[in-house]
Amino acid sequence: MLTVNGVNFGTDPSVTLGGVIxxxxxxxxxxxxxxxxxxxxxxxxxxxxxxxxxxxxAAFEMTLGVQGPTGPTGPTGPMGLPGGQGxxxxxxxxxxxxxxxxxxxxHIVSRAAGSERGC
Length: 119
Description:
Elements: E1 2-5, E2 14-17, E3 20-21, E4 23-27, E5 33-37, E6 44-51, E7 57-64, E8 107-110, E9 115-118
């Protein structure tokens, strides 16, 4: 996107860059700025010409450069608040049944009464 600031653009200006007609030219409501879609162009110097709807024109050179390298990554921002608890997971499978215990009788000794009895 190309923006050109100035005056007296008229209502339907024509804009060329390096001889290529730019598209989607829009003049702001007070006639002091226009925007246009730029074609893909190689870095270099090009002549920009704006011709108003009144057949007045202005031209100047503009230089397009290459995009520079990406800058360093900034510091990490502060940690946000903790989120809500997630949904519970699926219930696991039932575990295996353990072996059956011994079938012996329980023998209780009551020392207070001094007697033994079996169950």
